[in-house]
TrEMBL record:
PANTHER family: ALKYLATED DNA REPAIR PROTEIN ALKB-RELATED, NUCLEIC ACID DIOXYGENASE ALKBH1. Binds 1 Fe(2+) ion per subunit. The lineage of its organism: Eukaryota, Viridiplantae, Chlorophyta, core chlorophytes, Chlorophyceae. GO terms for cellular component: cytoplasm. Belongs to the alkB family. This is Fe2OG dioxygenase domain-containing protein. Fe cation binds at H151, D153, H211. Its cofactor is Fe(2+). Keywords: Dioxygenase, Iron, Metal-binding, Oxidoreductase. InterPro entries: Alkb (IPR004574), AlkB-like (IPR027450), AlkB-like_sf (IPR037151), Oxoglu/Fe-dep_dioxygenase_dom (IPR005123). Pfam families: 2OG-FeII_Oxy_2.
């Protein structure tokens, strides 16, 4: 009897330990509200700032039309080039810098986030997401007027996309409206608010969703994060990706 009670208590604890995802999102899209602890958020901001002022750090990218993106970017692992929509080893169109590697603790954190998202998806009766060995991390910093138009993340290799290897996205600082939908039409898209500490994962059948950042909400960053880091007004987003499914391929 006591053993049964202990077992059911353990089961209840295990259940409450499974993070809950926001309901109503498309299959393969999982949002864990407030998953990152304040300590993790502070550590991420300090780490990204340290890398961001070094070689290959934050810059304002441009498209091949010459138009500038409404954000500042730092790539880790591989450089994503907006002029060609391709990944490359160095930032050839700007200063030739080699992107810094992704710090190993961030790779490990990404793994934990994906594990939690997969557990939440399974608990909600959703699909199982494939594992990720991230070798790319893009850091975007949006000021108050920052935004990013509707797009798909489709510049990773076809085998990575076909396998539905997830994108793991971490939000820090000010909140933002994240639009997502099955087409490029922003008017038909749904919107969800991403706040500091939220983890959003899109993989499997959700890997190719169109998405955008339509608006940053000023003065919504957690005070503790600002006090501990001196983060400038705005929003920091990190997206982890895997360039090719078979990492040992030539
Ligand atoms: O800032 C975000 O939440 C999304 C960023 C994004 O879509 C990208 O970097 O491809
Ligand atoms: Fe994206």
């Amino acid at each position: 009897m006591a053993a049964a009670a202990a077992a059911s208590a353990a089961a209840a604890k295990a259940l409450t330990n499974v993070p809950r995802s926001v309901p109503g999102l498309p299959p393969g899209v999982i949002l864990l509200k407030g998953y990152l602890t304040m300590d993790e958020q502070i550590r991420i901001v300090l780490q990204i700032r340290e890398l961001g002022v070094g070689p290959g750090g934050f810059y304002t990218p441009s498209y091949n039309t010459g138009a500038r993106l409404s954000l500042r970017m730092m790539c880790m692992g591989l450089h994503w080039e907006p002029r060609t929509s391709k990944y490359e080893a160095t930032r050839s169109s700007y200063d030739g810098a080699t992107p810094p590697p992704i710090p190993s603790w961030l790779v490990e954190l990404c793994g934990r986030c994906l594990g939690a998202a997969s557990a939440a998806a399974a608990a909600a009766g959703g699909i199982q997401l494939p594992p990720l060995r991230p070798d790319i991390c893009l850091a975007n910093f949006y000021e108050r007027s920052g935004r990013l138009g509707m797009h798909q993340d489709k510049d990773e290799m076809p085998d990575s996309l076909r396998a539905g290897l997830p994108v793991v996205s971490l939000s820090l600082g000010d909140a933002a409206d994240f639009l997502y939908g099955r087409t490029r039409e922003a008017e038909q898209a749904s919107s969800v608010r991403l706040e500091s500490g939220d983890v959003l994962v899109f993989g499997g059948p959700g890997r190719m969703i169109f998405h955008s950042v339509s608006r940053v909400h000023p003065h919504t960053a957690p005070r503790e994060l600002l006090a501990a880091t001196g983060l400038r007004p705005g929003r920091l987003n990190l997206t982890f990706r895997q360039y090719r499914a078979r990492t040992n391929a030539p």
